[in-house]
Amino acid sequence: MGIIYKVTYKIDPNEIYIGQTVLSMEERRRQHERNPNVWQLSDESFDKILLKKGLDNWKWEIIKKDIKTKEELDRAEISNIRFYGEKGYMLLNIIHNTNKSRIKNKTNYGAVKAWDTNNTKAHRARYITGKIKPIKNLTKDINYKTIVELRDKEKISTPIINKICKTGEPHPKTGNQYAFLDLENNPILNDGHTKSYPILQLIEMLDIKTGEKYRVNLFEATSIAKCNLGELTKMKIFNMGGKRDDLTCNGYLFFSLNENGERIETGKHKKKLKRATLNRADIYIWLWNQEKTKWEFLNKVVGYQLASEFVANRFRTQKSSIYSSKIIEIIKGKRKHLKGYSFTITSEAPNIKPLRKLQPVIWLNSKNGQQIYFDNAKIAAEELGLESQYIIECCNGKKNMTGGCRFAWSNKKKEPIYTEQHENYLRKKIGLGMSVYWVEGEQTFQSIAELKRHLDNLCANNDNRVPYAPKVEKLSKIAKGEISGLLGKGDNKFKITLKMIR
Questions:
Q1: Other C-beta atoms within 10 Å of 279: how many?
Q2: Which of 201, 295, 386, 433 has its CA 20 to 30 A from that of 152?
Q3: What's this model's pTM, rounded to 2 decimal places?
């Protein structure tokens, strides 16, 4: 199966070439464009004309296909050549231009391949035809012989290379600018190369741990901070449409610059700088000895972050960051101590002598429905197998419960001190937020709804204590004392005694 194809010169459509092949149109075109012996041919050969006039300046098309035999293929080619010749077209087929010498240029180039970089004529031809495109990385002042070389070394796709070289825009990830080179290795620049891009503006960044400063553009900053460009362009301080108030990213503090190249410091920047100074300073850690009524030196670390990690290990907690702000407040004198620990930036002991009060707590929803009193949160934690800090959070109204238990501080009369969170917990809809103790069953339930489900299970198992399970609304009224717990009639009479627990 063969085809007859026509190649038309776009600039002068009167110039055409007629050919035949049993290959695909794409493969035959590739053979013409990459003929290894092209420089040994005469100037009138079609393959050489292709190179001279530019490979991109030709239109390739099939004019007849599905030809079965070689004889039919030859006849079809001759027929089409005669047809276009009679129409007045200039045929580039050498065999049909008898007035031209077939081998006018007898210089022998030793069949040097057209793609050999040592062949200067081949290099020029490849440049003219677009097969090679020397490129310069304008930002780093690096020359590349071809697109492929740049693609492989800097890992940039070919379409993006073509686009950023033509437009002059910086690379969207690195910020580098590129340009094609002419035959004299001069960059081909346009307006896009000289345009000012906001993402290339200079900023200042500070390493919070070491105090080291950098004056770089946003792209270079992403490389140093190991973050995405979006993390920086979203910051309001860079005036690039960002909506976030963040000033830091991955341990670096960022500043925009004014017209004089001086960094702009906001009030928030100054606070961050003070913190950064503290994070590089020596921090002395002290523990209050209640028996000796004095501060005892424990350790010296560099920076409040290490100090918070030290305390977290002492308290056996994983999140050390929760203590950082409290340690800074102690150093600034805004806080007395942190659970008996104090911190200074000098070797002198703190002047403040804290009195650690161990406030009693009450377990609100114990298993027997009674409120159980403990001397302090630490004792309650040891007896119930819980964490003391979570019990304190429950008492302070920061949590509703821990380990299924609810707690509140106790006053001198051993009565629970309820916070707003405790009250809000009780205001929830029926069936939720009301722990209840069922006297007959000697069980505590976290809610009326949970009690209702338990009674339903008892009824399903024919438990004699509960002939039927009342509705949630009725159980709620019994727990609040609004109605009696005597239910049923005749032989189905039974009693449900409930005690509501806050």
A1: 20
A2: 201
A3: 0.38
